[in-house]
Amino acid sequence: MSDFPLDWQRHWWRLVQDVHRGIPSPDPWKDLPFERYVPLVFEAPHFEPRHWHFALKDDIPIGFSNLIIDPDSSHVALVGVTGVLEAYRRRGLARALKFTASLNATAIGVEHIFTENEESNPMLTLNLSLGLFCLFEVFLLIVLESNVLKVFP
Description:
Elements (H helix, E strand, L loop, with lengths): L5 H16 L12 H9 L9 E6 L2 E10 L6 E9 L8 H15 L4 E5 L6 H7 L3 E3 L3 E7 L2 E3 L3
Parallel strand pairs: 3-4
Antiparallel strand pairs: 1-2, 2-3, 4-6, 5-6, 6-7
Helix pairs in contact: 1-2
């Protein structure tokens, strides 16, 4: 991935590892070594850097949200992990990142956006406050019509 300097790739990788470590899970997160992360993410055929959104402080990423387009339908996407380093939480960054990912989706023609959330994750409150609602106690859905976020009844 020649478009991103190696030091930025390392910052990106470190942020992803740190955020994942803070996500509630029955199994503790195990960091993926940088040397394994690069081919799995940065060199993967489906990798699309423009679908990653970052919050920066002094040009260092401190939060992110990513958008995963359904390979079978470009009108469907998943807002993947959204997270912010602990020192920068409770400042509205996750909300802005998730909303930006959703707006990016509408700009490229996505009509249905999903995200998932464990009940014990505080992100559930954020997702609900953005107008998302819970399906099957795990998945949340928003429908985009004319670039306006609407709750799917």
